[in-house]
Amino acid sequence: MAETQKTIFKRIIDREIPADVVHEDDHCLAFRDVNPQAPTHVLIVPKREIASLDEVSEVDEILIGHLFAVAAKLARQLGLQNGYRAVVNCGKEGGQTVDHLHVHLLGGRAMNWPPG
Questions:
Q1: pTM score, two decimals?
Q2: Which CATH number belongs to the domain containing residue 40 in this structure?
Q3: What's the domain range around 54?
Q4: What is the DSSP annotation of the chain?
Q5: Which residues are catalytic?
Q6: Per-residue pLDDT of the chain (116 residues; tens, 9 = 90+)
Q7: What total number of domains does the chain contain?
Q8: Is residue 43 a part of any domain in this protein?
């Protein structure tokens, strides 16, 4: 049986690919996006692989809450006192490009609405 290929995020979590890590705990890893869309652009990735928001169930409630608590903590630590955006893209039309759930923390500039 063929092993499924790891996503880039799983490879970062496993330290196979270097990243500018800004937070790590037992449940998630947060690192700076290599293609930032704002002056501050951090990805918060659960260590447990969940393909997308569509795959989240009740057993994931604590983990999902933790990801957003980490986003708020990082926003404070990174000086985003004037506001920020926390985004989860889901599916191809939602802009998700890596099949591993993640939260984008964006700040350091005014965010437009509606987004892209």
A1: 0.93
A2: 3.30.428.10
A3: 12-107
A4: -PPPPPPHHHHHHTTSS---EEEE-SSEEEEE-SS-SSSEEEEEEESS----GGG--GGGHHHHHHHHHHHHHHHHHTT-TT-EEEE---STTTT--SSS--EEEEESSPPPSS--
A5: 102
A6: 445 799 999 999 999 999 999 999 999 999 999 999 999 999 999 999 999 999 999 999 999 999 999 999 999 999 999 999 999 999 999 999 999 999 999 999 999 988 86
A7: 1
A8: yes
